Amino acid sequence: MAAKFDVEQVKKHLFWILLGVTALIEVVAIALLMVSDPAAEKRKEYVDRQKEMKSISDFKNSKFLPPWEERKNEFTGEKNVIWEKAWKPQEPIYDFPLGIKKLEYPDEKPTSAELTSYRDRYYKDQFDRSVAEASTTKYEIEYKNGNPDRYLLLQGPSPIAFGGAGGGQTGGGIMAGASQPGSSEGGPMKAGGVSVGAAAPASVSPGIRGILGELPTFTIPPNPEEFWILQEDLSVRRELVHTLRKALGEMAVMTRKPASKENTGAVVLVNSFWELTLIPEAGGRLSEKSTIRNVHCQGRPQALYDKALNWKTEFLIAQGANTKVVLSFDGDPLPYGQARSFREFGPMNIGTLDLNQEFLAAQTFRDVNCPLRRVMAIELGVAGQDIRNFKPADLKTRSTLPEEKGEEVEAGADASAGGPPGGEGMMSMGGPPGGAGAPATPRNVTSLNRLDRARYLVSNEVCRHIPIAVRLQVDQSQVNTILTTMANNRLRMQITQVEWNHLPRRRMLAGGGAGGTGFPGAAPGGFPSMGAPSGMAPGLPAMGGMPGRPPGSPFGIPGAAAPGGASGAGSNPNLASLGLEDGNLIDLTIYAIASLYERYPPKPGAETAGGSGGDSAAPSTAPAAKPPANTAREPG
Fold first, then answer.
1. Which of 67, 160, 509, 560 has the most CB atoms less than 10 A away?
2. How crowded is the C-beta side of 208, counted as CA atoms within 13 Å?
3. Tally of CB atoms within 10 A around 20
4. What is the rounded distance in angstroms from the CA atom of residue 86 to the CA atom of residue 613?
5. Could you say which DSSP state residue 156 is in?
6. Distance between CA atoms of 69 and 76, rounded to whole angstroms?
């Protein structure tokens, strides 16, 4: 008889039964693990692979190249697009003398005969052309979205006075504006009895030729490196002069604004000084209800004329090729916000000029009422701006220009001491001049004419960054116009610092010279002498903080009134307009860094940071906009 399965006994001892089964399974699993190792194969594979990797010393292979080539081409193409867009506007800046073949790239060299002719004739001829260009009246068309937007009048003969006070020497540093005692035309500038610079002054020419940096006659023909340095210096200076004339055009241009509901047929023209409301009548006349209103941007009263200095407030309206009209105003000064009807000025006609068609309107200036009164100096390659931890020795040479054999000289060393032959024919450009108290700083100069080749903050195969300093005498209300025009010019300038000092009220002589002010501390020509920290160019304004105050002048803030009796030759104490303009002039110094681009596309085969010249992207130049057919004729 079979035994009966006692379910109750199983339930009673279920825990121990399960515990025994589990222990049995574990014993069986341990036994199986002791017999076989399932990870042994993987472990062996890992160890073998590790030994193989340790034996490899170079991981590069063909699979690495395609992704990097793709990225390189992408970034090189983008760099070239930007490079081309930056170079194209700058291409017209660079000019070469007539008679010398135009060179495309820095490694191209003029012939020895061309360099000799350059020394004897071509170098000087460029300044004759530049002076004529700056003295010529012309219209410049401003474009917006490829279409003509407005016209600027670049006035000429330019009402801007170029050069230091009294038309003196302009070399030897940014602030050496006036002729120094003991100096003479053609001789080195002196500062405290010590020669300024390593050789001859930067320029001994007066006026615009000095501002353009014309150097004294040199006896040794320049080498190719010096040729490129000289041409770049002249090209950049000429562009700055053009920019300043354009800034004056921005101040002068009259733009059209909507007429009031009461005079729907009127033409309203306005700039930052005046508002003209012109109401045309039959027969080419202007209605007596036409007005001129003082809308000065700083809310000042303005003089309409100065009998002693022989100027009036005048506006030019030109249309087509043959039509131009000058509107002239005189009389008592006009307070801010007030208008005066044309009834007080006598009949005014515009002839056949049609105010409903496109025309140019601009205020014209004389040298004695010009808001941009004088360009005192322009300097290139000087460490003038306040750059922390910057040392002149950090300036670089042009990396794309093959260097000729040069030499190291000490700043402040005399030109004739230990220098190459050439005597008075040696030249000096750029770099902070030495002088009394200036530290002896090594300068990298060329071997023949001792031009300073270290002039860039950055120099590579694409771009050169050159520091620039410009000193002006300008109406304080127009500082923003100056800064905006300079920031937007073709040199792609970054303005780094601005310094200004209020000029005590004085009168300018009709010939352009400065009337004496009689205040203590004035330099020759009536301009305040300004101190300079040790090691800086003579006359540079103190860096940092509030603008320095001219010695002897109690006024250091633009707009502060000068003593009422401070007027010089040419003044008329009985004239109601005495000093309304001169009392708001400031001495303005602008420091900036210009970006000068190398020619695009780079020379075939030339190595660049982004690859060879063959990596250049396809040009993407947009067609130039055509000027309108109906342009105004140059007045003359």
1. 160
2. 22
3. 11
4. 17
5. S
6. 10
Say how many domains are in the chain.
1
Owning domain of residue 353: 252-370
Contact 550, 541 (CB under 8 A): no
In angstroms, the CA 373 to CA 365 distance is 10
Q: pTM for the whole thing?
A: 0.70
> How many whole angstroms from its chain centre is CA 545?
23
Question: How far apart (Å, rounded) are the C-alpha atoms in residues 225 and 444?
Answer: 13
The backbone region for 518, taken as left when phi is positive above 0, alpha when psi lies in -120 to 50, beta otherwise, is left
Is 314 contained in some domain? Answer: yes
CA distance 205 to 389: 35
Q: Phi and psi for 195 in degrees, rounded to 5?
A: -60, 135
C-alpha distance from residue 240 to each of 204, 215, 235 (Å): 19, 18, 9
Give the pair of three-digit tokens for residue 219: 């006896």
Chain-centroid distance of CA 433 in Å reads 22
DSSP 325-376: EEEEE-SS-B-TT-EEEGGGG---B-TT--TTS--EEEEE--TTT-SEEEEE
pLDDT in tens, 367-424: 889 999 999 999 998 655 555 556 666 788 898 888 776 666 655 554 433 333 333 3
Is 320 a member of any domain?
Answer: yes
Greatest CA span in the chain, whole angstroms? 154
Residue written as tokens 């692979």? 49
- Is position 292 within any domain? yes
Distance CA 595, CA 610 (A): 19
